[in-house]
Amino acid sequence: MDARHIPNLITVLRILLVYPVNYFLLERRFGLALGLFVLAGLSDGLDGFLARHYHWQSRLGSYLDPLADKLLLVSSFLSLAWLGLVPVWLTAAVVLRDGVILAGAIAYYFLLKPFEGQPHWTSKVNTFLQLLLVVSVLFSQGVWPLAEGLLFFLILIVLVTSLVSGAIYVHVWGSRYLRETRSPR
């Protein structure tokens, strides 16, 4: 195996962690779920560092990395909502945002042209806050109870950033699509 494939291998291993994280969540073994979730997060940082530092970026990695992140986050939100630990309405907003972005990307690709998707800074903030919320809920359930007010604040801020970042994606890519289709070729 060539060393430049290490980031993609780490990403695939992160995808494989999705099942055990959610298994332990649904079994209410929150300490184990937290440990694996943190391990997945650290692996995300490691594969990103290796890809950038050693110039091991690849087209496959540019698709696998966000897929791994979304699989882990969305499945964790669904499991936490199933257990009643995060509101269903928040999970619906998180899933709807990602669904709208994915549907828009697919439509843009097939209707217009391939593109290099770059995440907007609001999306990065939203992803960080989603991660923070999942870690906080798992920590509160498995290690040390956190204040209800803190968790509620995180829930509200994740809702707001999900809606705002989703709206920004719709606006930016919708505007780009309209410019491309209206300009003479």
Characterization of this structure:
The chain has 185 residues and is mainly α. It has one domain: Four Helix Bundle (Hemerythrin (Met), subunit A). It has 7 helices and no strands. Helix 1 runs parallel beside helix 4, helix 2 runs antiparallel to helix 3 and helix 3 runs antiparallel to helix 6.
Concise account of the structure shown:
By secondary structure, the chain is mostly helical.
What attributes does this structure have?
mainly alpha; Four Helix Bundle (Hemerythrin (Met), subunit A); 185 residues
Number of helices: 7
Share of residues in strands:
under 5%
Query: Which homologous superfamily in CATH is the superfamily?
Result: CDP-alcohol phosphotransferase transmembrane (TM) domain
Q: First CA to last CA: what distance?
A: 44 Å
> What fraction, in percent, of the residue positions are helical?
over 70%
- Secondary-structure-based class equals mainly alpha
| Tally of strands | 0
Mean pLDDT: 93
Number of domains: 1
Q: Major sheet, described briefly?
A: none
SSE series: HHHHHHH
Radius of gyration: 18 Å
Mind telling me the CATH class? Mainly Alpha
Question: Which CATH architecture is right?
Answer: Up-down Bundle
Uncertain runs are none
Overall body shape: globular
Under CATH, the topology is which? Four Helix Bundle (Hemerythrin (Met), subunit A)
